[in-house]
Amino acid sequence: MSANNKIIKILVGFSLLIAITNPLKAQTYNKEFKKAEKAFLESRYKDAADFYSNAALTIKSPNKSHLELFYKLGYCEMRIGEYRKAMTSYAKYLSISKRFKVNIKELKQVKEWNEWCGIELTEPMNTRKPKGFNDLIEIKSLSTLNSPLNDFGAILIENNTRFILSSNRPTAEDKDLYAINNDIYVAKYTNGVISNPLKIRAEFNSKAEDFSSSFCKATQTLYYTYSKDMNEKADIYSCKKINDNWAEPVKLPVSINTSAWEGFPSISQDGKSLYFSSTRENGSGGADLYFSVLQADGSWSTAKSLGPVVNTKYDEISPHIDSTGSKLYFSSNGHLGAGGFDIYYTEFEASSFWSEPTHLPPPINGETDDICYTTTEIPGVALFSSKRRGGSGIYDIYMIEPKKDKEIEKKEDFFVDAADQKTEKKEVKTETKVPEETKTDVPKAEKVAKVTKDVEKATTSPTKPAKTTSGSDETASAVSEISEYQLFNASIEGLYFKVQIGAYRNHITKYHQVFTSKLDPQKITEEQWPPDFLYKYTIGKQFTITSATNYKLEIRSLGYKDAFLTCYYNSNRIPMSEAKEVIRKYYRLN
Fold first, then answer.
1. Is the pLDDT score of 474 beyond 80?
2. Does any domain span residue 132?
3. How far apart are alpha carbons 40 and 166 in whole angstroms?
4. End-to-end alpha-carbon separation of the chain, Å?
């Protein structure tokens, strides 16, 4: 056989191999992509990421048809906290987008998410989130309330003796299981025992969708959502409870209900403020949160949006205003969280201003949807609904309770930067711990003065420690202990401290109302510490840790609860641990 014939046979064989392999790869791609799409729709982002990754492995030459895969793969990886992987997926998306015409909004979104992932990797955002309290609470499924389908929106009423909840569980009356609707149920709660839920016999339980209730104790009124088509149109109704009977439902006025979807009402304790979700036009996108106020004449004011700090391009649902009227819990799939809809809270800080949402940590938020968080009158007890694994159905109702097996005294180290807390705990064991401020009737100024006095007791005058010629461990230990105390009052040339009062993705300037309502903007400095893109706002300039701590407490007493110390040496920002080492080095050399 000639050499040419051999080459031809090899080429033909290779062509046949490619012809056989390509359909197999396409088959695998389609199979994995289909499984990924199902998991994605069910908000199982961990599973979806695995399936999308499997599909991506079969791609030899990425093209325009693969944009959706890398877009969703990156999104899933971002949702489960795999930020580095997400950035890799987004990089592939951006690489393809350079060769083809793509959706401008989608491209902009990918760039924004990519930036977020970079921030998470370089300066973890959890320094601005509440500390995990999974060691202080326990979560239990309320199995008696849960069914094989959806159970959500649970609240406790009548002095914590009745649960009201929404469910689309099948009943004896339901002959067509595919046509069952959400209705409102009640269950007795006595000495920790829950009775089986029963559908409330009232006009508000119709053949349409009736769900998501909120009850005002002051007016004995139930607020709920009514919808003939849950996905298209819904309105908010109220129904007054008279003894053991329910009056005729009343549809709320056009100042609240529009031609769009309105639902998930939450009424304040005094019955004068109503919060809800709506898909009306001119919002931020998707479902947004709005509020309306009851006027002196009994009418409801025109609903207003909670604004872009809270509302995103995606969905914000199931708001719940707590008993103080200043903290609003809600669920969102637009803010970065653990997976799907996550639970957040925002606090009312000034006139018409809501704070940047705070993400509730695990075990409350998980990898699946978590919605309908509601507080109760029982201290430390709250309710929420979740799709998490191990439940009875799709959405199940869970209760959050304080752990009873141990008491944990919460303390705070006022000398530690939030970003350096873990490092400091390992490095310094002799620092004085100051108990965290608790809720009492003592004025804030007195609390600050008390803590300041305690700090002063724990420190000494800023003189140099006495040098010793003894080589004994006892003497060396004494010197070391003195130098630790001296840390807090030492003033070193080039070293100073400031108090950070805020960090935002958007450039709000130091003249924003959140600052000017309580602080002098001329004392505020706007900073950016590379490589992230957050705008940080700091105030003051102190030269000892003690004076800086006192100033931080003063700033916190004005309402900036998350304020913390930042350290600078020769104009460069450094961690608190490094600042202390600068002080120790000064003493060693002098």
1. no
2. no
3. 25
4. 91
